[in-house]
Specification:
The complex is a heterodimer of chains A (302) and B (357). Chain A has 302 residues and is mostly helical. Chain A contains 13 helices and no strands. Chain B contains 15 helices and no strands. Classes of the chains: A mainly alpha (302), B mainly alpha (357).
Chain lengths: 302, 357
């Protein structure tokens, strides 16, 4: 108990002795603010649960069981053996939901890994150099912003062929523009700051200044935006799966599961509704988490 | 009054007064043309990515090599890419997207045939979303932090997170199959199909014009469920944006000033503050309409709604390249149009935007 108190005192110290202590203390204060927000904590719990589900899926069931067809057990309602029932091929829906979490998380992570670097590499130079570079880069971004994004994602996915990797490319191609705008706006707020000038005077290259001085300042808002966007990415990915443009059978994907459940909706309602509920909860979790993070960030900047 | 506006009001001020709007119009036109060209580039790329051989689609797989090469030459596939793009662009500008493989009609004709169904559903959903979303957003802003705000915020967050195709299925299951309150998928019952001759293409309007009230009520019964669901999703976005714009307004000092002068809080909120955010709301409404149109591909699949979305979905799955590109272009052009419209409406709803620039 006393050690935790000592930790708290060290973290919340008004006069931190080192840079590390100051930084950790800042994070701790944000965490305290975040913790007070009930909805945001719910969101965090949902996202963590999603990660946990994806992690334990292969431990709970053999990957083969997720696709194992037991036709004698097809379309069973919920029972102890099958908590969420079985689908039209006698596969356990709970197990498929767990494996579906892996697909969803894979898409979310891969999209983030593409979108953030692309957005930053267009937005940072635009804001930093200004002038012609800015005009050209932002024109490109604006053109992409004015497109019907969902429609293009569908068209790209159809053109590239169904599959998770193509779904990721299709979603990423239509998700990056706001990040370029965001990064540019963040750069503009610090562009004339004295620490940038100091770095310039010390002979730091443009690339070095962008990467070491400006990039870290952009990350918080990028992360918040990313969290909020992930909800939309999950919905788009599920939509692609629902239309048959995402993960291909027999791979367990939530949107595709809803789609197959459609045929038996009236008699075996759980086949379509349970995976849909999973999509909804996952997306809600990211929205709640993102909202909470934004509130903390707003409170800090205010 | 700034120097620029003072000059604009002066005796020789006609130059800036004309130059402002002209410059604005030119820059708008420029960005519209650029976006349109971008759209044609992207659809052109999509067309080349699609793993369908357009020549085979025409000649069939039993054709001889000579026929194949002849057709390939005829449709210009042996030309360099930029020549192909130029040909494509010229065709698009003439409204020529080729013929649909499924229906064998020109794609443009097909699109114009199915589009009214999508417009009817999207427009009604938009009306529901805006009519409810704006008041709810204002109430949330004026009751910030209290239970009204919490409920509205959470309700719109739920809408934000909802997979539309799933909500549609659950709605059909509950209100159509179990409760029987609304009609099922489709635009009208099969018995009423084709009874109304299209005038506007909107079945509710046409049936009223022709006095076929039973068709009208049937169509309404089919419309209620999908439009409420889409209306709810639009509401979620509109209310959220309205709330954050209003919070920004209510912080301003003029609110305090007008209240101090004795204006009723009701008037200050609903007339003065709301009046000031109309500019931003116009953009939000345009964006909402755009997302309803592009979301049609999912909703119309669920509700078997014979509009653009269903047409696109069928084309996607039958490798109907021309139809896919035509549909994407149509939604893209409408999108650009909506953006332009909200830019043009700016000065109308906000006198400040009229004076500046």
């Amino acid at each position: 108990m006393s050690t935790t108190l000592a930790w708290r005192g060290w973290l919340l110290s008004p006069a931190p002795a080192s840079r590390r202590q100051a930084r950790l203390g800042g994070w701790y204060r944000s965490w305290l603010a975040f913790r007070r927000n009930g909805l945001a904590m719910t969101g965090l719990a949902v996202v963590l649960a999603l990660v946990l589900m994806a992690a334990i899926a292969p431990l709970v069931a053999d990957p083969a069981t997720a696709n194992m067809q037991v036709l004698a057990h097809r379309l069973q309602p919920a029972s102890w053996a099958h908590p969420f029932g079985t689908d039209e091929l006698g596969r356990d829906i709970l197990v498929r939901i767990l494996f579906g979490a892996r697909v969803t998380l894979t898409i979310v992570v891969l999209v983030s890994l593409i979108v953030v670097p692309v957005g930053l590499s267009l937005g940072l130079p635009a804001g930093y150099f200004g002038g012609v570079v800015d005009s050209i880069l932002m024109r490109i971004t604006d053109i992409f912003l004015a497109f019907p994004r969902l429609m293009l994602a569908f068209a790209f996915a159809a053109a590239l062929g169904a599959g998770i990797d193509n779904a990721v490319i299709a979603i990423a191609l239509t998700t990056w523009p706001p990040y370029a705008r965001l990064a540019r706006a963040e750069v503009l707020t610090v562009r004339r700051a004295e620490f940038i000038e100091a770095a310039e005077l010390q002979g730091a290259s443009h690339l070095r200044i962008l990467l070491t001085q400006i990039l870290p300042l952009c990350l918080p808002s990028v992360i918040i935006r990313l969290t909020l966007d992930m909800a939309g990415v999950i919905l788009t990915a599920a939509g692609l799966g629902f239309l048959g443009l995402g993960a291909q059978p027999p791979q367990a994907e939530w949107g595709a599961m809803v789609s197959t459940g459609r045929d038996v909706l009236l008699d075996q309602w759980w086949v379509a509704t349970v995976p849909g509920l999973a999509i909804f909860i996952a997306s809600l979790g990211f929205n709640l988490l993102g909202d909470g993070l934004r509130d903390v960030a707003d409170a800090r900047s205010a | 009054m700034s120097a620029a506006t003072a000059a604009a009001r002066g005796h020789d001020g006609w130059v800036p007064r004309v130059a402002g709007p002209v410059r604005r119009a030119v820059s708008l036109l420029f960005s519209v043309v650029l976006t349109f060209l971008g759209l044609t580039c992207v659809t052109f790329v999509i067309g080349r990515l699609i793993p369908i051989d357009p020549v085979l689609a025409i000649v069939g797989d039993k054709a001889s090599v000579q026929t194949y090469n002849l057709v390939r030459h005829e449709i210009g596939l042996d030309k360099p890419v930029y020549v192909q793009y130029w040909r494509y662009l010229v065709k698009v500008l003439h409204g020529d997207f080729g013929n649909s493989v499924i229906t064998s009609h020109p794609v443009l004709q097909d699109l114009l045939h199915v589009f009214p169904a999508t417009i009817e559903l999207s427009l009604l959903s938009l009306i529901i979303g805006v009519a409810l979303g704006i008041p709810l957003g204002v109430i949330a802003a004026t009751h910030r932090g209290r239970w009204q705000d919490q409920i509205i915020r959470f309700g719109s967050l739920l809408g934000y997170s909802m997979p539309v195709f799933w909500l549609g299925l659950v709605g059909l299951l509950l209100f159509y199959a179990k409760l029987g309150w609304v009609a099922g998928p489709g635009r009208v019952d099969i018995a009423f199909d084709g009874m109304v001759t299209p005038i506007t293409g909107l079945i509710t309007v046409d049936s009223l014009i022709e006095g076929q009230y039973d068709v009208f009520w049937n169509a309404v019964s089919h419309l209620i469920l999908p439009s409420s669901i889409l209306g709810y999703l639009s509401l979620a976005y509109v209310a959220r944006m309205t709330r954050s714009f209003m919070i920004g307004q209510l912080k301003q000092e003029y609110v305090l000033a007008t209240l101090a002068k004795g204006l009723s809080p009701f008037r200050v909120v609903w007339v003065h503050a709301l009046g000031n955010i109309w500019v931003q709301l116009v953009t939000v409404i345009a964006l909402t309409f755009g997302s309803l149109l592009e979301g049609a591909i999912l909703t119309e699949t669920v509700f078997a709604w014979p509009g653009l979305g269903l047409y696109m979905k069928n084309s996607l799955f039958n490798a109907d390249l021309n139809a896919v590109i035509g549909g994407t272009m149509l939604v893209g052009v409408v999108y650009i149009g909506l953006n332009l419209l909200s830019d043009l409406l700016y000065p109308l709803v906000d006198p400040r935007a009229r004076e500046r620039r």
